[in-house]
Design a protein that fits this description.
It contains 12 helices and 8 strands. It has 294 residues and is of the alpha/beta class. Helix 1 packs parallel to helix 2.
Amino acid sequence: MTVFKGSYVALVTPFDKNNRVDADKLKELVEFHVKHGTSGIVPCGTTGESATLSHEEHSHVIEVVVKAANKRVKVIGGTGSNSTDEAISLSKFAEKAGADGILLVSPYYNKPTQKGLYLHFKEVADSVKIPVILYNIASRTAVNIEPQTFVRIASACRNVIAVKEASGSLDQMSQVHAACPGMDMLSGDDSLTLPLLSVGGTGVISVVANIAPKDVADMISAYLKGDVKKAQELHYKLLPLVKAMFIETNPIPVKTAMEMMGMCSGALRLPMCEMEPANKTKLEKALKDYGLLK
């Protein structure tokens, strides 16, 4: 049975003029997504600058989003860490706060073996009862979760029921789906969402949905209903905007876009920094071409 399908937004974390978490703006963003067809919200992921949130801020953001969503859409708390103990602590908090699931990124920097990945994910998954989504993004973590490791984890942990695949490889995604056909598979690359759906994917955890939620939701809905032509049209409509979201390191472009659109401050925390002027001009053009800016 599919638990996670549709468009989930990898939500930005808005900061105020003093670079503190802007809880009021966070609530506004939740309302925006509820109104525009987003299936679920994922706070405190890469796009949410989780790496530069304090432990207290991290928990606060998840709590604010859960309360604001009020069960109208699912909330998947990003609770991964390169410290197993910290991931357990954050995951337990997300469960207690009422999150519908947790997203666990592979431990980064310390570069564990496949056995280490298995032991890490098992410890964290065993600490909670809510559903777990594993997040595979070797470009940021330095280690790929191999297909057989997914099998081992899923076999040992009944609440590990989904994967966010951001390897950038359809071959890897296909292997994971073949090895774990009962596991929900969500795209972690906006440009690969439609191709992933064609090999058994169920949705996306999206960056571009921060600014174009309805089109992302409609693309997935159309494909899952069998309207491949409409899904393709939306894929190609979104593609230039998706490319613009990654002309610099995520979440710099999407936060800058949201500021241009008046959605929230574009403030970032170092080492994330302001866009280069030339790239900002390209981003502005992409937003205008899409009809998001006049």
